[in-house]
DNA sequence: GATGATTATTAGCCTATGCTAACTTTTTGC
DNA sequence: GCAAAAAGTTAGCATAGGCTAATAATCATC
């Protein structure tokens, strides 16, 4: 530590680099559950509305093909979020229901927040669908408080 | 259209399904550029601060290994966002600089918005890093206005 | 209950994004 | 200017999440 004018030699710099990396690592972590979250949320909704969640309905709403849905459902089943039988509708496990509820809650808050900011419903829905997966508990609380207040 | 009590038979229902799918399709579209956006933004910053962007510095800040950086840089070069020579630092193309500027702008606005909501800097930085890729022009404008006002 | 339409699955392909291990090149410090 | 350290590359592997084409099962209707 002779020359402190060096690029990248301070402790402070090292800590800044570290915390930056942690942010990116956190975002990548969140990314890994995005698809699962959207699926369980949608499946819960379909079950609530129709009594069952059929792949064809998931496919239409997610805007992906049937084989893509099948493969994704395979991962959800492997991860213990749904149960399914061949050629049958899918259902949520206890864990899947819990995740769905949490996702619906977050989605609702983000959506209401965007609407309360004055965004049009179409855009709000679209943005909420992406933003919801990247909102921390703290931010969510602030969003909820803001929407409440206004 | 004899029995309108059918599940999923109304025009309105069809339109709702369609627009839901469009939201998801849009989110997937945005997802495809997330990594490229983060890289060019970081590269621009490193060039600004150090005069060059070295893979090792990108690696440390992104929290990924060197080979991952190398592969990603290959895609960025292929897509015309950067130029590079073997064993040398990378530089942005005109297009890369334009994208970086746009990303930095969005990042700044989202970050300032979160801070102005009362979020702590650490969490704000973390959330901004994820949210920035899923904010429409309209929402960005509302965020900017809000941060300004408060 | 046969049959045509709808729905679901499987196989096989692709790209992006991560990793480790092994190797090469460049930089640094005597 | 040489040796060791640091940085960069390459090869090879894995998983997620898309797709199309082909096949199979279920459902609806007569
Ligand atoms: Mn979503
Ligand atoms: Mn959602
Ligand atoms: Mn980001
Ligand atoms: Mn950013």
From TrEMBL, chains A, B:
Keywords: Activator, Cytoplasm, DNA-binding, Manganese, Repressor, Transcription, Transcription regulation
Single Gene Ontology MF annotation: DNA binding
This protein's record includes keyword GTP-binding: no
KW Transcription (keyword) present: yes
InterPro entries: DtxR_MntR_Metal-Reg, Fe_dep_repressor, Fe_dep_repressor_sf, HTH_DTXR, HTH_MarR-typ, Iron_dep_repressor, WH-like_DNA-bd_sf, WH_DNA-bd_sf
SUPFAM superfamilies the record matches: Winged helix' DNA-binding domain
Annotated function: In the presence of manganese, represses expression of mntH and mntS. Up-regulates expression of mntP.
Family: Belongs to the DtxR/MntR family.
Name the UniProt record assigns to this protein: Transcriptional regulator MntR
Species of origin: Actibacterium naphthalenivorans
Phylogenetic classification of the source organism: Bacteria, Pseudomonadati, Pseudomonadota, Alphaproteobacteria, Rhodobacterales
């Amino acid at each position: 530590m002779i020359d402190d004018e060096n690029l990248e030699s301070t402790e402070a710099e090292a800590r800044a680099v570290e915390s930056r990396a942690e942010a990116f690592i956190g975002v990548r972590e969140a990314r890994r559950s995005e698809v699962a979250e959207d699926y369980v949320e949608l499946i819960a909704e379909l079950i609530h509305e129709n009594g069952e969640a059929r792949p064809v309905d998931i496919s239409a709403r997610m805007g992906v093909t049937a084989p893509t849905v099948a493969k994704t459902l395979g991962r959800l089943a492997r991860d213990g979020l749904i149960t399914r039988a061949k050629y049958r509708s899918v259902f949520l496990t206890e864990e899947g229901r819990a995740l769905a509820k949490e996702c619906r809650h977050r989605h609702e808050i983000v959506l209401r927040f965007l609407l309360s900011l004055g965004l049009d419903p179409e855009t709000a829905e679209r943005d909420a669908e992406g933003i919801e997966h990247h909102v921390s508990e703290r931010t969510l609380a602030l969003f909820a408080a803001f929407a409440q207040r206004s």
